[in-house]
Amino acid sequence: MSGPIAVAEALRRILAGIPDPVSAESVAIAEAAGRTLAEDVRATRTQPPFPASAMDGYAVRAEDIATCPAALRVIGTSAAGHGFTETVGPGEAVRIFTGAPVPEGADAILIQENADAADGQVVAREPVAAGRFVRPSGLDFLAGDVLLRAGDTLDARRTALAAAAGHARLELRRRPRVAILATGDELVAPGAPARWDQIVASNALAVGALAREAGAETVDLGIAGDTLDALEAALAQAVAARADILVTLGGASVGDHDLVQSALTRQGLELGFWRVALRPGKPLMHGRLGPTTVIGLPGNPVSSIVCGLLFVVPAIRALLGDPRAGEDRSEPATLGHAMPANDGRQDYMRARLDSAPDRLPVVHPENRQDSSMLSVLGQAEALLIRPPHADPARAGDLCRILRLDRRIL
Hints:
Number of domains: 4
Number of helices: 7
CATH class of the largest domain: Alpha Beta
CATH architecture of the largest domain: 3-Layer(aba) Sandwich
Radius of gyration: 30 Å
Low-confidence stretches: none
Shape: elongated
Strand order of the largest sheet: 7-4-6-5-9-8
CATH superfamily of the largest domain: MoaB/Mog-like domain
Distance between the termini: 37 Å
Mean pLDDT: 93
């Protein structure tokens, strides 16, 4: 039997097994936040569509106030949505407000702080250069410009940009369906009575939150007991739900009580791999069940969350057509204290960070790294990555971290 595969190879195989991205659908822009673009977004108009004032004041011809003081006749007003339609001639000015169109003939804005107005006239106290305080047409973007790319996720700023570009609806990827199945006689739902030999199931909630944050919708298959009949009934629900990804929690190894792989095999699973050289999370399974990608996560809570970050989230992003799905999201840091040599598994150690604006963050691994300890993960700010067979390291050495307090996308 072959040994565990490397983390990078496991991710490569999972992403290589993802079929084409999920289908697209037209969505009103008011409902688009958090969704992923299925096609590029081009500007349907130029922004701003006219030269606009950046300040309150007076639209003038710069040559008329080259020498100050200079008196000009005020011939009208230009306000946002109510532009002045005539031309500014020699010795003339137009009262103007921020965002309003700059009239024809004017080429600068005399700000009101440098002007004295009375009796239909304005006196400029300081000259202003041509183009000053004028936003030229197309300063932001031009009609036809590509503003957003397929695979981008629409957060608040991107949604605003698409709206400003003139789009009432957008072509977005439908949300991939991720079915989540917890397994084990020892598990009970949160709030349910528990025997002395049972624990509260938390993994499905955590993985579901990760999946939704990545852009998926989730199907909770509940908790299946340790029998083939119970597992096969739950798998039938996943098939009926037309899940794009099935995530199982626990039972992915080959021990006497690890029945998930056996149940999946009986249903036609095409197994890819089931062991990865990482800690926490060695017993991790991947395969296909018909059109569904199967990812079997370890049962330990910390292991399932770490592996969800490393493998489930990129799989969802690949289904959404994100070209950055497999991108390395780690960043540099320095060690806060010495570390021993590592064995053949890639470590993801729960850690705290000391940060300052003028240096890399300093990472401090927690003393307790047991994969069952959610209290440690709950307080951690990052995962310290220790490559396989890493040499001993000293305090101050460079390292890589994955932040836990930063959005996935």
